[in-house]
Amino acid sequence: MTPPREPHVATEATATSSDVPVVDPRTGAYDDATPWSGDAIFACAGEMAERMAAHPWDRNVLGPPAQWPPVLRTTVSMVLRSKYPMTLTWGEQFVMLYNDAYVPVLGEKHPDALGSPLAEQFPEIWDAIGPMQRAVLQGGEATWDENLPLVLERGDGPEECFFTFSYSPVPDGDQPGGVLAVLSMTTPEVLGARRLAILNDVGAVSASDPKTAAAAIAAALDRHPSELPGGRVWLSEDAAPVVAAAFGEPGPALEAPTPAVGPTILGAGRTAWLGLGGAHRPSHAVASPSQEQAADAGEDDSSALLELRLPELRPLDEAHRRFLDQLSQAVAQRLEAARAQELEAQRAATLSELNTAKTHFLSTMSHELRTPLTLLLGPLHDVLSGRVDVLDRAAVEQLNGQCQRLLGMVEDLLEISRSESGRLVAHPEAVDVDGLTAQLVEPLLEAGERAGLRMSRTFRGAGTCLLDVRLWENVVLNLVSNAVKYTLEGSVHVDLAMDDQLVLTVRDTGIGIPEAQQSLVFQRFHRVRAGEGRSIEGAGVGLAIVADAVAELGGEVSLESAPGVGTTVTVRLPVREAEAAPATAPTALRLAGVRAKALDLVPVGEPGPERRPAAGPAGPTLLVVDDNTAMRQHVASALGEVGRVLVAADGVEALEVLARGDVDLVVSDVMMPRLDGEGLVAAIRESPDRPDVPVILLSARAGSEAAISGLGRGADDYVAKPFSREELVARVRAHLELSSLRRERQRRRDRETMLAGVSHDMQTPLATIANALELLTSLGIPDLPPEITGTMTRSVASLLGLVAEFLDWSALSTGARVRVHLEDLEVPSLVADVAWPRGLELTTQVGAGARVRADALRVRRILANLATNAVRAGATRLWVGTDRDTDGLHVRVRDDGPGIPPEVLARLFQPWTTSQDTRGSGLGLYVSRESARAMGGDLTLVDTSSAGTTFDLRLTSGG
Question: Is 946 helix (H, G, I), strand (E, B) or coil?
Answer without folding.
Answer: coil
